[in-house]
Amino acid sequence: FRIAVLASGGGTNLQSIIDQQQCGRLPVDVTLVISNNPGAGALVRAQQAGINTLCINHRNYPNREDFDRELVNALQQADIDLIVLAGFMRILTPVMLQAFPQRIINIHPALLPAFPGLDVQQQAIDYGARFSGCTVHFVDAGVDTGPIIIQAVVPILPDDSAATLAERILEQEHRIYPQAIQWLAEGRVKIEGRNVLIANTSG
Ligand code: GRF
What we know:
Layout: E1 2-6, H1 12-22, E2 29-35, H2 41-48, E3 52-55, H3 64-77, E4 82-85, H4 94-99, E5 104-108, H5 120-127, E6 131-138, E7 148-155, H6 162-185, E8 189-192, E9 195-198
Parallel strand pairs: 1-2, 1-4, 2-3, 4-5
Antiparallel strand pairs: 5-6, 6-7, 8-9
Helix pairs in contact: 1-6, 5-6
The structure holds 5-O-phosphono-beta-D-ribofuranosylamine.
5-O-phosphono-beta-D-ribofuranosylamine binds near residues 7 and 10.
C-alpha cells in the first residue's frame, strides 16, 4: 500500500507516520513526500528517512490547475494508493480530486465542522470553546468539509495560547493520523454518503 505525504511545513505529522511505519505498526510504504515549499522541514525529515522527495513549487505555475496537473503526474508515476495531506497549505482543484477520488485524506487541527480554515487554535480560544481537537477526513471540493474518518478531543485550558493548544492537539494528531492510514491500508474504510464506516478485522 503505497502512500504519498504532501506537506508544506515542519512535518511532525509526517514524522509520526514514518516512526509508526519504521517500528512495524503501520503496514504501508511511504513512497514519496512532496512539498510546495522548498524550505519545508518535512523534506529534510523524508530525506533523513531515505524517502524519495519532490519539491513542486506552486510559484512556478500560473494557476492552481497547472500546479495540480504536475502533482497528478508525479503521483501517478509513483503508483500511489493514498495521498496524505499533512500540513499541505494548498487548496486542491478538481484536477487532483478527480484523478484520485476518495483517495486523498487531510488532518485538521480542530473538531470539524467547527473551525474550518486557518489559524483555528486561536479561533477556538477566542470563541470560548472548552474543547477542541483534531479531525482526519477525506478531501472533497470544499475546505475541510469531507467525510470524517476519526477525531480526537482535547480540553482548552484557561491559560492556553494558540501555541500551547496547538501542541496539545498535535499530540493527538500524531496518534490518529497513523491510525486512520492503517485502517485505509487494511481496506477497512467504506464511505456511505457522509458516513465513514470502519469494518472490524476480527470478522
Ligand atoms: C497540523 O496542525 C495540521 O493539522 C495542520 O498543519 C499542521 C502541520 O503540522 N493542517 P506538521 O507540519 O505536521 O508539524
